[in-house]
Amino acid sequence: MLDINRRTFIGSATSAVFTAPWKADRLGIVCSSGNDESSARKALAAVRHAGFDLIQLQIPWGKVDDTFLKKMPGWLNREGIRAEVLGAYVNCCEPENVIMDCRRSDFERAIRFAGTIGARRIVAWTGGFGADLMKSDPKNFTPMAEENVCRFVESYTKSLENHGLQLALETYITLTCPDALSLSNLLKRLPRCVGAVMDPPNLTPIDKYEQRDEVLAEMFRLLEDRIALIHLKDFRLAADGRSYQLPGPLQGEMNYRLFIDKIKSLPQQIPIIAEHLAPDRYREARSRLLSLF
Fold first, then answer.
1. Burial zone of 214 (CB within 10 Å; 0-12 exposed, 13-18 middle, 19+ buried)
2. Average pLDDT of 70-90?
3. CA distance linking residue 285 with residue 107, whole number of Å
4. In the 8-state DSSP scheme, what is residue 127?
5. Residues 18-40 pLDDT 10s
6. Which helix (H) or strand (E) holds 97?
7. How far is residue 106's CA from residue 101's CA, in Å, rounded to a whole number?
8. Over the stretch 171-195, which tens digit does the pLDDT of each residue have?
């Protein structure tokens, strides 16, 4: 007869309650819609053909009108695709400095639009003062930059809550909060409707690249209970030693076995979105990732 004492039982129960089971339908992909019906439907068909049914929908906000947005739910339904994540990459630090085709007014449109496609998460940049996403501005790493992000996000938390949305803040080594510690400290100042995008290449300082496994483990320790979204890509040090190359998942030097083990240990069901892939690589990437999970 099995000897199950009280401690063993509680430990098993805790594991059962707080470890979310892995489900293949959590794995999705970034899908860029283009700015007309033909390009949108072609992009969605490529996603479905590769076997995905979950996406992070990327819309070129400055190039689409309300008619395009109103048709999007129908296009998604016809392909059987869930757009649980909506990209609206406003620059939270300096919203007038548009670094990825999303102005303040577009972010507001995205909040109103998200529910029509069933999206529960919106993604935005922490942002910064520079014009180039891949080049840092010294002001990005100042208390003023973090204050700006907090002020902008706090002005929308009520609207996010009213629409049942979570804001996932994405950063990069060039932007405000360039590592897990600074991002964690920022999130402590913000309500629970705001979380982090877990994306190791974006949160690994150049000078810690050789210790990237340890840095990855620390990211999960610092951000675990505030992770709102997971991005899958890869990275390697560029030839100049001062920047990264950012290929798609499993095409660089990240320890993917460690990354996936950390993902599977998380206590909550979080969308896992592959990115930096051309449509002709979707199916192969999905197969390889699922085999690792």
1. exposed
2. 98
3. 30
4. -
5. 455 667 789 999 999 999 999 99
6. none
7. 9
8. 999 999 999 999 999 999 999 999 9
Question: Exposure of 83 by Cβ count < 10 A (0-12 exposed, 13-18 middle, 19+ buried)?
Answer: buried
d(CA 287, CA 113): 32
CATH superfamily of 25-292: Divalent-metal-dependent TIM barrel enzymes (3.20.20.150)
Task: Please classify residue 229 by burial: count the beta carbons closer than 10 Å to its beta carbon, then call 0-12 exposed, 13-18 middle and 19+ buried.
Answer: buried
Report which residue type is found at 266.
L
Q: Is the pLDDT of residue 3 over 50?
A: no
Return the closest-CA partner of residue 203 out of 118, 226, 60: 226
Dig out the tokens for 274 from the structure.
């592959």
Determine the Cα–Cα distance for residues 25 and 132; give it in Å rounded to an integer: 35
**Cα separation values, 91 from 87, 101, 157, 258, Å:** 12, 10, 16, 31
CA 205 – CA 186 distance, rounded (Å):
17
Q: Which residue matches tokens 């204050």?
A: 147
pTM of the model: 0.91
Distance CA 232, CA 30 (A): 10
Separation of alpha carbons 21 and 276, rounded Å: 26
